[in-house]
Amino acid sequence: MRIALNGATTMRADLATDIQVAHEAGFDLIEIWAGKLWDYLASHSLSELKQLFSEHGVAAYSINSLENITFRSVDDEGDLLDRFRQLCRIAHELECPYIVAVPSPRPSDVTDETITEESARVLARLDECAAPYGVQVAFEFLGFAGCSVRTLAHSWEIVKRVNRPTVGLVIDTFHFYVGGSSLASLQMLTPDRIFIVHINDAEDRPRAELEDQHRLLPGRGILPLREIIAGLRSIGYDGVISVEIFRPEYWAWDPIRLATEARLAAESILLPGQ
């Protein structure tokens, strides 16, 4: 398994710093935080960004993320698709294979089947937009109570409904735990449809109380990380594991310290004998 650095982990650093510290800490892949991308391109060219990646020997693995993709008005959905096409053009130029897409909060009085249908419809439209650019859509469920797609099982049902090889899953260990996904649900998957795995840990709190700020470096909390990784390996997944942590305490650290500790923490879970 290859390890990537997600830009949320170093949220207060800019994109150029993310690329530099990823290289210095031994990562060869990063997930670009979309807000940092737009900030960089406000004063630099895409060619400059490509050169920055090349100089540091780091590749872009995803742009993270297009948010609240479902249950939009017609006009809002049109704007969403326009923004997505912009991201696709950028991803194509960077040879970045994935854009992460995140479902909206759950509206009142909708059924799970309605959510499945709406999510599959929007993902299919995104995939149609992405196809000319050779970009794939990585769908990430969120375990929080208000989200429309909270579990791996539901997310997998949606991806199967779309039934396109260029639409797949993001599995985040924090959201896997918070939403109550089961280890058994990993056995339903096929590894080629798992595009990204986000690894992180969490404080020892009731699931209903856990928020993004309670994430921890892998191995420092109570999530069953080794069991999740073992489940993924048992179905043949050997893809990218990306460290994604939204913890303000860590954001105050020097970015190189944080990137280095993030890599070591991930390796402590992933490497045999650690």
Architecture overview:
This protein is an alpha/beta fold. 43% of the residues lie in helices and 17% in strands. The chain contains ten helices and ten strands. An eight-stranded parallel beta barrel has the order 1-2-3-4-5-6-7-10, surrounded by six helices. β5 (136-140), α6 (152-162) and β6 form a beta-alpha-beta unit. The chain starts with a strand and ends with a helix.
- Sheet with most strands: strand arrangement: 1-2-3-4-5-6-7-10
Helical fraction equals 40-55%
How far apart the termini lie comes to 15 Å
Number of helices: 10
Main beta-sheet annotation:
8 strands, parallel, barrel
Estimated share of beta-strand residues = 15-25%
**Overall mean pLDDT score?**
97
Which features does this protein show?
274 residues, alpha/beta, eight-stranded parallel beta barrel, 17% strand
Explain briefly what this protein structure is:
This protein is α/β, with parallel strands linked by helices and 274 residues long.
What does the secondary structure layout of this molecule look like, with pairings?
Elements: E1 2-6, H1 15-25, E2 29-33, H2 34-41, H3 46-56, E3 59-66, H4 74-94, E4 98-101, H5 112-130, E5 136-140, H6 152-162, E6 167-172, H7 173-178, E7 194-199, E8 201-202, E9 215-216, H8 225-234, E10 240-243, H9 248-251, H10 255-270
Parallel strand pairs: 1-2, 1-10, 2-3, 3-4, 4-5, 5-6, 6-7, 7-10
Antiparallel strand pairs: 8-9
Helix pairs in contact: 1-3, 1-10, 4-5, 5-6
